[in-house]
Specification:
D-amino Acid Aminotransferase, Chain A, domain 1; five-stranded antiparallel β-sheet; 10 helices
């Protein structure tokens, strides 16, 4: 289980074959790696599921392999699709074939071994020994089309590191002609960015150049869709699985799947939690809630930062156990604004009236007034 979505497992993944299951999207949210926060945002889960399904179907149409199988209809009554065919409870169908926004996404499952560690030293060799040739790549591949003020990239690198003709980072956002791709850890208690050599080692059998190439292609497709909807796609990330059916088959017979190994896009793609979008200069993503907490609960945000720093100094993985301040619930008006942002944004991005929500311009106006 993750902080904002749950798993249903139908068939476990094995060394030989992918399994089958689904993500169930909740209305929970998480900021600053805290995990489940005190509030829920109504219909947030359905908006993420709908956008994720929409993007996976876009990727598949462009020839990008993914773990997506469709969305799952869950209802107590029969509903009709656009083609007037019955969709029964539990059916796996394309997004266009559900009448109401879905909360459940059917996916192929891969193996996710434990990642042993002592303090902050993680044993990736053990991870891959258990994973074999069917595993979730323990990396997040991050792509950036813009470097806003406050981006961690500014603290970690200089403009010249990315071929930019700038002596230093300016006091405004920098739009990039060529997106920047970076790699960070996925399963460590505090994520960290990696140089290419370490990322290649952590990726296992998955080729680091192929991971970058897929990330760039996903970024292109999401950026073009956002542009068509009047949105700016600023940055995002993907996660991937690696599957080699031939190598995984213990008896030498080819199992179902690619003969020479294949990287498939996993998790969820192009939502307001995984990516940052903006509309007419205003953020349209989870970043809105992050920044609101920074303004209204600075003591908690600072306590989180100090706990992470202390964990790093003392070689402790569980930084949250060192934090002595808990987040406070949000005001009801803030929750309503966040709900409208997610729902109106999903409508705009997909070009469908999936949610009963105000126009995006109105939703953004409320975000600006937070």
């Amino acid at each position: 289980m993750t902080s904002v979505k749950e798993f249903r497992i139908e068939d476990e993944a094995t060394a030989d074959n992918l399994g089958r299951g689904s993500f169930v999207f909740t209305d929970d949210y998480s900021v600053f790696d805290w995990g489940k926060m005190p509030d829920q945002i109504p219909q947030k889960g359905a908006s993420l599921c709908s956008m994720g399904a929409f993007n996976f179907e876009l990727l598949e149409s462009e020839g990008v392999p993914t773990h997506y199988r469709g969305v799952v209809e869950r209802s107590s009554t029969d509903r009709r699709t656009a083609s007037d065919e019955d969709v029964e409870d539990g059916d796996v169908v394309p997004l266009a074939d559900v009448e109401n926004p879905p909360r459940e996404m059917a996916i192929d499952l891969t193996q996710v071994p434990d990642l042993p560690h002592e303090g902050r030293e993680y044993d990736y060799e053990a991870y891959h020994a258990d994973a074999g040739s069917n595993y979730l790549v323990p990396l997040e591949i991050v792509f950036r089309n813009r470097v806003p003020v406050g981006s961690s990239l500014r603290r970690r690198t200089d403009p010249a590191d990315h071929g930019l003709d700038l002596a230093e980072w300016p006091d405004e956002a920098v739009d990039l002609d060529d997106p920047i791709v970076e790699f960070s850890t996925k399963y460590e208690e505090s994520d960290r960015y990696l140089d290419r050599e370490e990322a290649d080692s952590i990726a296992g059998e998955a080729d680091i150049d192929d991971l970058e190439s897929i990330a760039r292609e996903v970024n292109r497709i999401v950026t073009e869709q956002a542009d068509a909807a009047g949105l700016v796609h600023e940055d995002g990330k993907i996660e991937c699985l690696y599957y080699d059916g031939a190598a995984a088959a213990a008896d030498g017979e080819r199992a179902s799947g690619p003969a020479n190994g294949e990287i498939r896009v996993g998790d969820v793609v192009g939502t307001f939690d995984e990516n940052r979008f903006s509309y007419e200069g205003t953020q349209l993503s989870k970043e809105v809630i992050r920044q609101y907490h920074k303004r209204t609960q600075p003591e908690w945000v600072e306590a989180v930062s100090e706990a992470k720093a202390e964990a790093k100094r003392t070689d402790v993985a569980d930084w949250k156990g060192l934090c002595d301040v808990d987040p406070e619930p949000l005001d009801e008006s803030v929750i309503e604004t966040a709900r409208d942002m997610y729902c109106a944004g999903a409508n705009a991005y997909t070009g469908r009236e999936l949610f009963d929500a105000p126009p995006l311009s109105s939703a953004i106006g409320a975000v600006q007034r937070l």
